Structures are given as C-alpha cells and as structure tokens.
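User: structure tokens for Suppressor of fused domain protein, please.
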Amino acid sequence: MELLSKFEIEGLSPLHHGYPAWPGGGPWLHLYRSGASWTVLTSGLSDGNEYPYELFLDSADEIEPDDFGSSWQANLIYETGRIIPNVPGLKERLEENKFLTLQVHMDGAPDEWSLPHEDGNIGLFLTPDDSSVSALLPNGKALNVKLMRPEELVFCLENGMEGRLQLAGHYKAQGGALTSGMDRESVV
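Assistant: Done. Predicted tokens:
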C-alpha cells in the first residue's frame, strides 16, 4: 500500500471542537492506495494495549488526495472516531459478537443511504480484520468500517446478533465484504 495523504484532526481547531482524545495520542487519518482500492486508516486511536483498534474503510470509489479530508470516506471514519473511543467494553463486545453496527448522524447524506432514525441516519458495520491493513499496524488491530444501506441497517436492528451474522455472510457472498462504495446494492 502506498501512503498518499495525511489529515490531522487538530484538537485546538474550532472545526474539531469537542472531538474526543484518542487513547494512542492521535488523531490522524491516512489515505493509502493499493491498485484500484483506496483505504482510509486512523493513526493514534490504538494505545497498543488496552485499546488495540485502529479504524479503516476500504473503498473502490476514488479519493482525490488533495481533497482527502472532505471525502465521504474520511468523513465516515472521522464521525466513527468521535464515537468509538467512548464505547464502553468495545474489545469485549467484539470478542463476544464479532460484528457490531453503529449509527452516526451525518448532514447532507444522499437519501438512498440515509435512514431517518433518532440514533443516527447512517449505518456502519464494524468487523475486526486481519488483512493487509493489519500489517500497517505494529501495535494495533484493524477494525473495518463498512457503509450500510438503510435496508441493511433496519435488518440488523430488527434481528440483532443473528441479523449481523447473516448480513456478514451476505456481504461475503456479494464480494468485497470489507469494501464500501456508493454504487453497492443492498444485500437484503
């Protein structure tokens, strides 16, 4: 993977006011490219011990390195990075459930990707991963963030852990189980 760009989430900037401290001393977002795949990866979320996770999002949709910080992919990781450090028992939850869902509030999201819901209009599917992204993390574990279609989020909300297991199987069957893209069809 080739590192193309970095974006620092500056704690003293008014644009990032109230952004939580990350256990590993970050926050940074890095943009990598490998072939036709683009990867947004956090740096500084993992402390390498009690909090082992860094977030990543793989996308087939092109990201302009010069405009990386305002891409939808970076924005999803940015918003996830607001929430994840405050989730109690994340490590234990992932060990028990393997797959988790998360809802974030994002203004301006396309209607076909947005679900009017009090807990957040955008659904994200979280999957621990040991792919090539993990090789970039000497002291952490990669946690994939996959953009969900609204129908997929509703399916998970209605079916709990069983729904998440089924959805993971559907993603694998669709191909690109860890990849997010704006043209992807719903698997339910």
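User: Anything notable?

Assistant: The two ends are 32 Å apart (CA to CA).
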